[in-house]
Design brief:
five-stranded antiparallel β-sheet; 11% helix; 36% strand; globular
């Protein structure tokens, strides 16, 4: 499971799959869609950039945007 800590707030963002992300901020938790829609939990706000980064569309496994040209 991919997980990132927000650099300013310290909240932990965990990818749950299917485009959803759990956010844990000082014991308050919430589950959000990658587009920011709140699905459940006490925590009702989250950083939209972190949600998209973890829950949004991902490159296929093994794909790399940096490719050697030559």
């Amino acid at each position: 499971m991919a997980q990132l800590r927000h650099p300013i707030t310290g909240a932990v963002y965990s990818a749950l799959g299917e485009g959803t992300v759990e956010v844990d901020s000082n014991g308050l938790k919430g589950i959000f869609r990658h587009d920011g829609e709140h699905l459940s939990g006490e925590l009702r706000f989250a950083d939209p950039h972190m949600l998209l980064w973890l829950g949004g569309p991902q490159l296929p496994e093994g794909d790399n945007i940096r490719r050697n040209r030559g």
